[in-house]
Amino acid sequence: MDLKNKSIILTGASSGIGREILNKLKEYDVKIIAVGRNINKIERRDNIIPFSCDISKKEEVDRLFEFAEKKLGNIDIFIANAGFAYCEDLTTPSWEHIEEIFSVNVFSPIYSVEKMRELNKDRKYSAIITCSAVSEVPLPGYSLYCSTKHAINGFGRVYNHETRENEVISLVYPIATKTNFFKNAANRAPIPLPMQDPEKVAIAVIDGIKKDKRFIYPSKFYTISRVLNRILPFVYPIYGGIQRRKFYKWLEGCQPNNMAQ
Questions:
Q1: Vertex 261, ends 255 and 131: CA angle to 5°?
Q2: Is the pLDDT of residue 58 over 80?
Q3: Buried b (16+ CB within 10 A) or exposed e, 122-133
Q4: What is the CA radius of gyration of the chain?
Q5: What is the mean pLDDT of residues 90-110?
Q6: Mean pLDDT computed over 124-149
């Protein structure tokens, strides 16, 4: 899709990958609704409209779309980038704890994709969802987070078989990225390797939008590892075992008040 004169909604725009995507997009001839809970961190420009929104709530997502329609008219591109993780030992049953992460990471992007279809009818549009390498690779300590990305991966891959000619649904698969993501997941949370810069992910996302890519892999390492694991299916289990040891070492060093749950 040609980005010229396009109207865009970008969630998770105040930090991490979302902020890098915003930094790249602002140089194009586009208008952007930049969504975040803390919009004080979002740069204000003529073509950037910060919008405070709790995307975990249906009524808030509805409010976002109503605002975007009033400000921009048509919405050509929706980038569902917002998401978060817990790093934790699942010991205490909590429905609310599970619901919170699924509301942000799964329900909200899927509902937004449905809203884009309803809004655009026969107009061409793109919806991009930040999935993750952990939708396919085991990462001990992040069971709930990984399960949300498994859900998004499943939805996107099946929904791509249901799309019309005017619809492009793209999934993005970053590996661990150099942001505050893991710091926010838990105190001194174990960080998987390798890592990549958020700028690299942002460049891949924008290139993917331009080329109507349905699957966007910012990391060559991950692309190669997917092929390698098909040939040698013990690769990911070995990686999971390494991360398991890191997770239990982290647990041993945690005090109760440092736990995510």
A1: 120
A2: yes
A3: eeebbbbbbbbb
A4: 18
A5: 97
A6: 96
Kindly state the tokens that stand for 97: 């704890």
Q: Is 88 within 8 Å of 260 (Cβ atoms)? A: yes
User: Are the beta carbons of 50 and 34 closer than 8 angstroms?
Assistant: yes
Structure tokens at 20: 């890098």
Q: How far apart are the first and last CA of the chain?
A: 42
Round to whole Å and give the CA distance between 116 and 131: 18
Amino acid at the residue 204: A
Closest of 176, 109, 108 to residue 146, by C-alpha = 176
For residues 121 and 129, what is the distance between their CA atoms, to the nearest angstrom?
20
Instruction: Please give the pLDDT value at position 256.
Output: 52
CB 217 within 8 A of CB 204: yes
| Mean pLDDT over the full length of the chain | 94
> Which stretches of the chain are DSSP H helices?
16-25, 58-72, 95-102, 108-120, 143-159, 181-185, 198-210, 220-231, 235-253
Q: State the Cα–Cα distance between residues 152 and 110, nearest whole angstrom.
A: 8
Q: Which two tokens stand for residue 79?
A: 């980038």
Tell me the pairing of strands 167-172 and 6-10: unpaired
Q: Is the pLDDT of residue 99 over 80?
A: yes
Query: What is the structure's pLDDT at 43?
Result: 86
Distance CA 253, CA 48 (A): 43
The model's pLDDT over 5-42, given as tens digits with 9 standing for 90+, comes to: 999 999 999 999 999 999 999 889 999 999 998 899 89
